[in-house]
């Protein structure tokens, strides 16, 4: 993969933006039981924060994407990162559950813009032959953010510094960290060459483009609904499963989650690169098939070691499939709305799948606290659904990207 220095910096910036976005999101998954205890409620009630964050992301994808298609990928990406950093940190000051849920909904709006902006900036800045590999790298930002949250949780949560105890509120204050990425983008990352080339040309708007391509847009939303069930259904409640069903301590939960996310990074990189050889559709299919035999290890074994092996394999599969998505959606998208449409499709799928967390928690509690059953049910059904749906997808590997198409 031969990239110029500027192209490498663009990829790094897009990766970091998504990594720290995911870090802010996944901090919550480690803290559900603690927040529930402080606000004197149960885990399903607090897990509505996951639902609200996912449900509002499509608003941010639309809003920030439209701005980026008009004013450029770079400045709007910087605005977006600052937005989710500040709103994420404000959750630390929530006086009650209602305010906390409202802030997480606003965080979802800010979070929703980053993926579309970062992926369009990167994909429009690199040669076609590098897209599969870079797609895997970019999507690995998500498990890298989860891994970072697991490390920080394991190292800091519950630690005492003098009279200060590092509790869940202090964890959310770490959301200020991503704002530092803006300084790097401002100094080192150029604007998308495709946007610069096409900024003076007349381009069709989003509604006109959707009328022309409504079939592929609707199909992609359904596909992304299943993809978001796949990722969030195997990730968001896994720490709660380890704590509530198995009674593992903070450090055990942390290292199992770290192993899982190492698997996710391996999968994203491997299948993103593999998609350049066997195609986007075939790579996604293969990854989903691998998830099925991992379910018994991942959800039904009892020792930390075996659960970690299962989690590693499961996330190789889940994020292996996801590693192809940035390039696949950008190649399917018309260039005139590439900052808006892929992110909007992704987050509209998120909206359709947004109640998965509370629904899973409800299934688990109704099954006598069997979070393993709820996780296994989701993973198995959704993996099969993706295999079926992805076979209908167009394959546009290697197409030339402009903003005028």
Secondary-structure map with pairings?
Elements: H1 5-38, H2 43-46, H3 48-55, H4 57-71, H5 73-90, H6 97-123, H7 131-139, H8 141-156, E1 160-161, E2 164-165, H9 168-173, H10 179-188, H11 193-198, H12 206-212, H13 214-235, H14 238-245, H15 250-278, H16 280-300, H17 304-322, H18 325-332, H19 341-352, H20 356-366, H21 371-390
Antiparallel strand pairs: 1-2
CATH class category name of the largest domain: Mainly Alpha
As a whole number of angstroms, the C-alpha radius of gyration is: 20 Å
Query: Structural class, judged by helices and strands?
Result: mainly alpha
Output the helix-strand order.
Answer: HHHHHHHHEEHHHHHHHHHHHHH
Helical proportion, percent range: over 70%
Gross morphology is globular
Number of strands: 2
If helices are DSSP runs of H or I spanning 4 or more residues, what is the number of helices? 21
The CATH architecture of the largest domain can be named as Up-down Bundle
Instruction: State the CATH topology of the largest domain.
Output: Growth Hormone, Chain: A
Adjacency order of strands in the biggest sheet: 1-2
Please give the alpha-carbon distance between the first and last residues: 26 Å
The main sheet comes to:
2 strands, antiparallel
Overall pLDDT level: 86
Number of domains: 2
Binned strand content: under 5%
Spans where pLDDT lies below 50 across 5 or more residues = 400-405
By CATH, the superfamily of the largest domain comes out as: MFS general substrate transporter like domains
Subcellular location: Membrane
GO cellular component, one term: plasma membrane
Protein name: Major facilitator superfamily MFS_1
Transmembrane segments: 12-33, 45-64, 76-93, 134-156, 168-185, 213-233, 253-274, 281-299, 305-327, 371-392
């Amino acid at each position: 993969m031969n990239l110029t220095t500027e192209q490498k910096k663009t990829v790094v910036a897009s990766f970091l933006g998504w990594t720290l976005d995911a870090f802010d999101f996944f901090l919550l998954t480690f803290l559900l039981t603690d927040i529930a205890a402080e606000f004197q409620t149960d885990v399903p009630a607090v897990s509505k924060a996951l639902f609200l964050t996912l449900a509002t992301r499509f608003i941010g994808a639309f809003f920030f994407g439209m701005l980026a298609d008009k004013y450029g990928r770079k400045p709007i990406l910087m605005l977006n990162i600052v937005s989710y950093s500040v709103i994420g940190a404000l959750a630390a000051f929530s006086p009650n559950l209602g305010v906390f849920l409202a802030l997480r909904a606003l965080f979802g709006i800010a979070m929703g813009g980053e993926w579309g902006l970062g992926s369009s900036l990167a994909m429009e800045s690199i040669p076609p032959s590098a897209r599969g590999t870079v797609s895997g790298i970019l999507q690995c930002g998500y498990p890298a953010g989860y891994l970072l949250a697991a490390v920080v949780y394991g190292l800091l949560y519950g630690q005492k510094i003098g009279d200060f105890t590092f509790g869940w509120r202090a964890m959310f204050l770490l959301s200020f960290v991503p704002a530092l990425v803006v300084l790097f983008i401002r100094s080192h990352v150029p604007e998308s060459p495709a946007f610069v080339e096409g900024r003076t040309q007349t381009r069709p708007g989003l509604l006109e483009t959707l009328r022309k391509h409504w079939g592929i847009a609707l199909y992609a939303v359904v596909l992304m609904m299943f993809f978001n069930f796949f990722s969030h259904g195997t990730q968001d409640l896994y720490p709660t499963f380890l704590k509530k069903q198995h009674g593992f301590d903070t450090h055990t939960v942390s290292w199992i989650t770290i192993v899982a996310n190492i698997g996710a990074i391996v999968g994203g990189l491997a299948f993103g690169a593999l998609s350049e050889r066997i195609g986007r559709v075939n790579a996604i299919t293969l990854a989903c098939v691998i998830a099925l035999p991992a379910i018994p290890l991942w959800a039904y074994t009892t020792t930390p070691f075996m659960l970690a092996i299962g989690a590693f394999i499961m996330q190789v599969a889940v994020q292996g499939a996801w590693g192809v998505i940035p390039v696949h959606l950008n190649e399917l998208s018309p260039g005139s709305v590439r900052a808006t449409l892929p992110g909007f499709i992704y987050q509209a799928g998120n909206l359709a799948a947004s109640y998965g967390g509370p629904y899973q928690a409800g299934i688990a509690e109704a099954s006598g606290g069997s979070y393993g059953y709820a996780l296994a049910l989701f993973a198995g059904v959704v993996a099969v659904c993706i295999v079926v749906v992805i076979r209908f997808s167009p394959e546009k590997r290697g197409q030339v990207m402009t903003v005028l198409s």
